[in-house]
# Entry
Amino acid sequence: MTTIKLKKQTYKTIKYTLFISVLALILQACGSVPILGRKQLLLVPDQEVLTLSLQQYQDFLHGAPVVKNTPHARQVETVGRRIAAAVETFFRNNGYESELKNFSWEFNLVKSGDVNAFCMPGGKIVVYEGLLPITRDENGLAIVLGHEVAHAVAKHANERISQQMALQYGGQIAGGLLGNNAAAQQIGGMVFGIGSQLGVMLPYSRKHEYEADELGLIFMAMAGYDPRTAVDFWTRMAQAGGNSGPEIMSTHPNDQNRIAKIKEHMPEALKYYEGAGVQN
# Structure
């Protein structure tokens, strides 16, 4: 009986020690989303995430019909660079300058009828031609590109990989799993998909999508684009998408809920718009 009790005691001690180790690691790996301040789990070093995603992105571009030197392609580049420059200026002025080394911005237009855009870590952004009839002008493009820039700035891909690692490997993380990046590579491959596939990234969660909407409004406003045009843009997106079904069935927000949230965040975004020196 004494031996059994000792074994139980030892098991509890090991379990408790493991829990403390994992908790300590998670606390050390906590980051926060710029501006919004939400705490997030970031188990994988930024450079490793960039390495994992870069090959997938290059493979995609190698097989994709990239549009170059057309008015639309130049517009995507111009609007994207303008938003990226505004974000970088904000970072330098607000104590985030060390984060800038993680970004090497690229903005590409791809010939495809799909109504889609995506962003890989480090600021590799692709817009599909099928979006252009809905964006219509530079303000519309700024809504899309601000949203995608937000995914990069908020490190949503890193967070998603980290969450999957914590779920799949649990306590093994504390045993040095992160020292061997095979696990991160395996999960990163699932997150980023196969480079030659259209779509590339697996869908973000609703939380990430809402967050990218909110940050995207702020980023486009910083660059001098009117965030109030976002309501009309997302209304056009809803009409183009038809009946998208209930929100619970999709990782993307329900159109009505998305527009309601955008309206809720508009007063804050307008502060940045007015701060950009725009006359209303």
In short: The chain has ten helices and six strands. The longest strand covers residues 106-110.
